[in-house]
Amino acid sequence: MLRTTSSPIFSSFRGRPKTPRLIFKAFSVLLEDSPPSARRNASTNLTTLHQGPPTSAYVHLPFCRKRCHYCDFPILALGSSSVSNAPYEERQEEDDPRITNYVNLLVREINATRTCFDTNPNLKTVFFGGGTPSLVPPKLVSLVLETLSSRFGLCPDAEISMEMDPGTFGGEKLKELMGLGVNRVSLGVQAFQDELLKACGRAHGVSEVYEAIEIVKACGVENWSMDLISSLPHQTLEMWEESLRLAIESQPSHVSVYDLQVEQGTKFGNVYTPGQSPLPSETQSAEFYKTASSMLRGAGYEHYEVSSYSKEGFKCKHNLIYWKNKPFYAFGLGSASYVGGLRFSRPRRLKEYTKYVADLENGAANWCGDGNVDLKDVATDIIMLSFRTSKGLELKEFGEAFGRKVVKSICKVYEPYVESGHIVCLDDMRKEVMSDEFKKLVGNDEKKIEDHVRYLRLRDPDGFLLSNELISLAFGVISP
Amino acid sequence: MGSMYRASKTLKSSRQAAFSLLFNSVKPNRRDPLCVVGLHQAYGFSSDSKQNSREPPAIDLTQFPSEKIRNFSIIAHIDHGKSTLADRLMELTGTIKKGHGQPQYLDKLQVERERGITVKAQTATMFYENKVKDQDPSGFLLNLIDTPGHVDFSYEVSRSLSACQGALLVVDAAQGVQAQTVANFYLAFEANLTIVPVINKIDQPTADPDRVKAQLKSMFDLDTDEVLLVSAKTGLGLEHVLPAVIERIPPPPGISDSPLRMLLFDSFFNEYKGVVCYVSVVDGMLRKGDKVSFAATNQSYEVLDVGIMHPELTSTGMLLTGQVGYIVTGMRTTKEARIGDTIFRTKTTVVPLPGFKPVRHMVFSGVYPADGSDFEALTHAIEKLTCNDASVSVAKETSAALGMGFRCGFLGLLHMDVFHQRLEQEYGTQVISTIPTVPYTFEYSDGSKLQVQNPAALPSNPKYRVTASWEPTVIATIILPSEYVGAVINLCSDRRGQQLEYTFIDAQRVFLKYQLPLREIVVDFYDELKSITSGYASFDYEDAEYQKSDLVKLDILLNGQAVDALATIVHNQKAYRVGKELVEKLKNFIERQMFEVMIQAAIGSKIIARDTISAMRKNVLAKCYGGDITRKKKLLEKQKEGKKRMKRVGSVDIPHEAFQQILKVS
């Protein structure tokens, strides 16, 4: 349940971490040729990013009307009792004690989170994820934001995102949320076909989708994203193209396209096998991904991350923190934070989470790393996260942190894939280095590579489509 | 791997004796007091025994001239009761104590325990008081010389048998004559041994001794009146066995006043004593301290210790004509102890004993570390193993696909299997072994000849034309219920076999004799035979001569690049079929890659089969929700580990298993 990597969860909390110190365990290969200066200047490079204070917070609001058939997130289904045909404003969520109690617990967690850094910069991004955060009454959202603000401080221009599902909010509620500071909406549309929405157990239909889009626009939310899921059961290429077309027509500033993952223990996991009908085949599913990439790019969206597209200036700042391997807080059931080098996941069950919060208040729970990290972990994290983005892996920075020899080995391993076009190699002007040229460079010494190759990225869409394969190859270089 | 055992269970009771195993350097020599029991029972060879009953008395071998000695072995098909009978005989003579066999059983090598086989023979000396009516009882020295159970070691079997004058041919009363019974009988027959037929397990409800007697008569022309009926399990009829050995088997024929000649019929390495040689004294006598020479190696040594196996190594200070025992000479490796060699007193001139043959390796396979960086560990492990098994040949080789490794030569398939298994089990070395191959000979138009132990070494496009090629063959014996004859004949002709004999043993059972190319039985013949006969066929083979054949090299190419470790040599007529099958199998073994992979089979520059594996379409990371990357990372780590189980040829990943499994024809 708890996915921590190193520190024990209930070791005593020591207030401030000791002076950051790097552990070079099992890492001699990576560091053998790195210049001593790189190690001495460690405080400024990739290996020490995690040591700074976070300026982002993820807040988990786990409530949903019901669980979708593909979902394995830690959520709390409220059931049909709170679903009614009454207008949004008159529904019972205002008084649902489950929500109130949870938010109180969440607030306790935030309050019990002692900062452990010399400086405590204000938060620049806050992300309300779920669950369906839009089910939470605005006054409770307000309580959370106030708590965050008093605990860490909140930049006046902070990006505050909230996931909202069609059918769970009206204009008034959205206005109210905007008044509290919410300035980015992520709308969980998923599909524009009633039969597909129904088949995956969504609590809304297409008419609610159109309503929700209207509300978002009417309220003047400029920065809003639409979530779509591809490779749903019974989904055809025509349906997918229709969804993309309708998405583009509604002009969100951002689109997230997720390829359905059939997870164990979900309804889908129990009845479907990936690649087999009614799920699309691997080939069809790849076709969906390519279609999304070409249609959305054609409509002026930048494909800046494996599953994210944005209009200029509308990348999700919060998510960029993840891809840059920067630290972030997380609060709430099952949420995962990355502070002081420790990736820490909170309990996914309410009972255990409640105990965790109590332990935290008593100083008996530790969620913050002491700055010690396994460099191999950092290197593989950076590789995995960078390759998700269109920016790719910045080799100079990476070489300074982990050694030029590693950069050369990664280039060598990718040589055939540069040739096949799965990987794009760029110079410092982000001009593509052709595969013949790249081949020559890889045959050369490390310095030569450093001078001419600045970035490696996965090609859109062929490289992105095989990201697991390609990334795991680089993992093999880091820890053979 | 289809293993063709003519396996026998080990002599459990004498298992712990240091000489019992081929590969016994694993465990230090332990002395188990239980196993020396019996020495101080009165056999009339020592007058001290009453005075000091705690110390085993020195054994005085001079009490046993040739006429008081019988050397014999027990031969049988697997599971016909050879080990049990041996146990009983040793119990009967007090060589081991009843019921004390089991604890040592646990000490067996894992490989022997799993396979229920004896890799190496063991030998025991027993003392027996023969009571004949109206005569004074008379003490005999009986040497039970065990033979390795498997056909791979047929030369070793023949050497062990040549130290005997007779053999107990044990046949299961229900199963009757089986293939190994036949093979063993002929080996014994060729060695001029007196055969004492024994029908065992007569207590079984399905026992049909009369039918078995009839088979023995028709197959081997054995006199049905001379057949002993026993149950080694219940002890029924056992009392007749040793008297029959003494009465029917002649004493060893050697000449005691002639210069020393000994047959070396087995050896093993002991951590403390060095190499221990098992010998049978043919002529003359040997004393501790004597200087002896080995005819085949031309090496001389001083005899540091000499004695008998009782069943532990028991010093006697001497061995006399006709006796069987061990010598220790300070020899360092078993490579110096060639099975079948003649040992004689240094500076004397003797005629070497007949039948010595150098080791012949019939099956070759490449052995490579699964993880390329483990070459050192593999080298070390192989050195350790071969120290005790001189019959494996080892030469370094390099494969473009698999890196640095070794080409190992084996006596046969089981030998190879056992070697691989021990390498993994005892030394923890993960190995990739390549498709087994047999030694071929090719002749070119310029008259040159090439011996090929690794198909990759045969040029695909040679400078000179191949004018002739030869391959080794075997003579196979198959015994089976008659209803399966059609299927088996089809199998044998499909494997390019030539029928030599087809006889009915009785109304239900058929005896088939085939000459088959060794290559055709090397991989899956036995498995196939078992499956088409529902397990009822028994099979055995012996080496036969090379035959002229039309052989070609079949290359496997991945995206145009030949994979040396997948090359194979096949008969021209089968090349297309094998090529097609190999391509098909590889297609199943190789997972989709990021590129399209073209698989081709080629003879020289001619492509004879092809297929493609289409490129992987999608293998994409799911969203890392809320920044939780741990799960996705685990997935990637797993994927990375998966790649470690692959060998990369060009840009194609090939799973380890492909290299050894690929030739298994369904």
From TrEMBL, chain A:
One of its GO terms (cellular component) is cytoplasm. Residues 49-299 form the Radical SAM core domain. Belongs to the anaerobic coproporphyrinogen-III oxidase family. HemW subfamily. This is Radical S-adenosyl methionine domain-containing protein 1, mitochondrial. It holds the Pfam family Radical_SAM. May be a heme chaperone, appears to bind heme. Homologous bacterial proteins do not have oxygen-independent coproporphyrinogen-III oxidase activity. Binds 1 [4Fe-4S] cluster. The cluster is coordinated with 3 cysteines and an exchangeable S-adenosyl-L-methionine. GO terms for molecular function: 4 iron, 4 sulfur cluster binding; coproporphyrinogen oxidase activity. CDD domains: Radical_SAM. InterPro entries: Coproporphyrinogen-III_oxidase, Elp3/MiaA/NifB-like_rSAM, HemW-like, rSAM, rSAM_sf. One of its GO terms (biological process) is porphyrin-containing compound biosynthetic process. It comes from Raphanus sativus.
Automatic annotation (TrEMBL), chain B:
GTP binds at residues 76-83, 146-150, 200-203. It holds the Pfam family EFG_C. Residues 67-253 form the Tr-type G domain. One of its GO terms (biological process) is positive regulation of translation. GO terms for cellular component: mitochondrial inner membrane; mitochondrial matrix. It catalyses: GTP + H2O = GDP + phosphate + H(+). One of its GO terms (molecular function) is GTPase activity. Its EC number is 3.6.5.n1. Its main location: mitochondrion. Gene3D superfamilies: 3.30.70.240, Elongation factor 4, C-terminal domain, Elongation Factor G (Translational Gtpase), domain 3, P-loop containing nucleotide triphosphate hydrolases, Translation factors. It is found in: Mitochondrion inner membrane. The keyword Protein biosynthesis applies. It is a peripheral membrane protein. PROSITE patterns: G_TR_1, G_TR_2. Keywords: GTP-binding, Hydrolase, Membrane, Mitochondrion, Mitochondrion inner membrane, Nucleotide-binding, Protein biosynthesis. Promotes mitochondrial protein synthesis. May act as a fidelity factor of the translation reaction, by catalyzing a one-codon backward translocation of tRNAs on improperly translocated ribosomes. Binds to mitochondrial ribosomes in a GTP-dependent manner. Belongs to the GTP-binding elongation factor family. LepA subfamily. HAMAP family: LepA (MF_00071). This is Translation factor GUF1 homolog, mitochondrial. It comes from Raphanus sativus. The lineage of its organism: Eukaryota, Viridiplantae, Streptophyta, Embryophyta, Tracheophyta.
